[in-house]
Design a protein that fits this description.
With 473 residues, this protein is of the alpha/beta class. The chain contains 19 helices and 13 strands. The strands form four sheets. Strands 1, 2, 3, 4, 5, 8 and 9 form a seven-stranded mixed sheet that branches. Strands 6-7 form a two-stranded antiparallel sheet. Strands 10-11 form a two-stranded antiparallel ribbon. The protein is elongated, with a radius of gyration of 27 Å.
Length: 473
């Protein structure tokens, strides 16, 4: 079965690409506000991602779509735990997560996939992650994979439940990140007991780059080699830091004494992300040492130390050398013209490790398929529905399912699908069903039992919760 995804806080599309590589996921909408990232996204996917998740018009657009899985690498913003368990509607301003929560409430996807930095688990003395868990679990009714609770029903936040490291997924980068996978209880119900208690912890197939040595380029320009003055500054800095008992400083990640070279986390800001990922490059360094290069105040260092290149960072995230290899084995990743090198570093550092996402996507897909295979005919019908149509029909089935035959339940589903946001009278319902007014009146009485139908003063009826306004927080 093919599932549709929406890619929110998309960056340059790493999460989307991971799902696409897993197979049977098709993207139908994207949202990103950074213009440089949008240009790269558009170049890679030929889609315009210029949408804002905080914009109500975009939220209504998503509500009009039919999609199954919501993806978001949302930013970690400060928000208070005040009001915890009182409804996230009171805490929406200024926090992207709550805009995503609003979209979930309006569109009711089958699965939610979120990615964030490791510090999300400790942010604001754990108030942030507790509020996120409470919102997804209690308020939106999603089963969070790996989440455990104490005897009082309070969430037990553990690193093992949510943190996964890129280095175990076929890429030589030490990059711990938080990944949250949540399945809708409304769609999957008791079948969620079939879902494993943890998300994947490692890549199930052979490594993409077995070592950091496989990531490094053979031919590197002089501009990536450090000036002698800057390298001396770093060397003095690390001595001073160590003297004070601190562990900060530059790192040469492929020093000869390291048996299995591994990159440190690359960062969106570049900066320390570069300095903690310096490499020895004796082949190219011998060509450039002592050379003066435009933009450097002193000559290139004689120790053959350089920063990693954007291409190498692209490999460390699985974009280059893996994520965009076509069927003929050709590399198809490229930045559009006009993207500065500084932005290339930023975009890779701000993105995700595609192989990790791919493994998570396979996990999600396989579990959706396993649960679906056990569904009854009615449950499969409900599974094919989206948004408020699903909510209304689920209510009809929950209230009337035991007293009606299966074909009659499907008839009621057809009524919802046909009228949706339309107002209708008893006569119009009888014409649609090809039955008597008395039978149509009986059906309306049954629907009123479910609280899905609202009777209006002038004899018109309509289904509740079928308008966008009813879902705004």
């Amino acid at each position: 079965m093919q599932y549709k995804i929406v890619d929110l806080c998309a960056g340059i599309g790493g999460i989307r690409r991971g799902f696409e590589l897993a197979g049977d996921f098709q993207n139908v909408a994207s949202a990103e506000i950074d213009e440089f990232a949008c240009k790269t996204y558009e170049c890679l996917f030929h889609d315009n991602p210029r949408n804002d998740v905080t914009d109500i018009e975009f939220k209504h657009k998503l509500q009009s779509l039919q999609y199954d899985v919501l993806l978001a690498g949302f930013p970690c913003q400060a928000f208070s735990s005040v009001g915890l368990r009182q409804g996230f509607e009171d805490k929406t301003k200024g926090t992207i997560f709550f805009d995503i929560a609003q979209i979930v409430k309006m569109t009711r996807p089958k699965v939610i996939f979120l990615e964030n930095v490791q510090n999300l688990l400790s942010h604001d003395k754990k108030a942030t992650i507790k509020t996120i868990i409470d919102t997804l679990d209690r308020q939106l009714n999603y089963h969070i994979v790996g989440m455990k609770y104490d005897a009082n029903g309070n969430p037990k936040i553990t690193t093992g439940a949510f943190i996964r490291n890129t280095k175990f997924f076929g890429i030589p980068q030490n990059r711990p990140r938080v990944y949250i996978v949540a399945f809708s209880r409304d769609y999957f119900g008791d079948y969620l007991s079939m879902v494993p208690n943890e998300t994947p912890t490692h890549r199930s197939r052979e490594s993409i780059f077995a070592s950091l040595k496989d990531v490094l380029e053979e031919d590197v320009e002089a501009r990536y080699f450090m000036s002698s003055g800057y390298l001396e500054t770093l060397e003095k800095h690390i001595v001073n830091q160590h003297a004070k008992g601190y562990g900060f400083g530059y790192r040469i990640v492929n020093s000869p004494e390291i048996d299995s070279p591994l990159a440190n986390t690359i960062m969106a800001s570049g900066g320390s992300g570069k300095e903690r990922n310096l490499v020895f490059d004796f082949v190219n360094g011998e060509k450039y040492k002592g050379m003066f290069v435009k933009g450097k105040q002193t000559s290139i260092n004689t120790k053959c130390v350089r920063t990693m290149t954007p291409t190498e960072w692209g490999r460390l995230q699985g974009f280059i050398g893996y994520g965009f290899i076509n069927e003929d084995g050709m590399e198809c990743f490229s930045f559009p013209e006009g993207i500065p090198v500084s932005q290339q570093y930023k975009q890779f550092g701000n993105s995700v490790s595609i192989p990790v996402i791919e493994e998570m996507a396979r996990f999600i897909y396989n579990n959706m398929e396993i649960m679906y295979s056990q569904f009854t005919k009615i449950e499969k019908s409900l599974y094919s529905m989206y948004g408020n149509e699903f909510v209304v029909c689920k209510e009809i089935w929950s209230v009337l399912g035991k007293s009606l035959r299966e074909d009659t339940v499907h008839q009621f589903f057809n009524i919802v699908h046909h009228f949706k946001k339309k107002e209708f009278r008893v006569k119009e319902l009888s014409v649609f069903l090809g039955t008597s007014s008395a039978r149509a009146s009986q059906i309306i009485r049954q629907l009123l039992e479910t609280e899905c139908v609202l009777k209006q003063d002038n004899g018109l009826y309509c289904f509740k919760n079928m308008t966008s306004e009813n879902d705004l927080l």
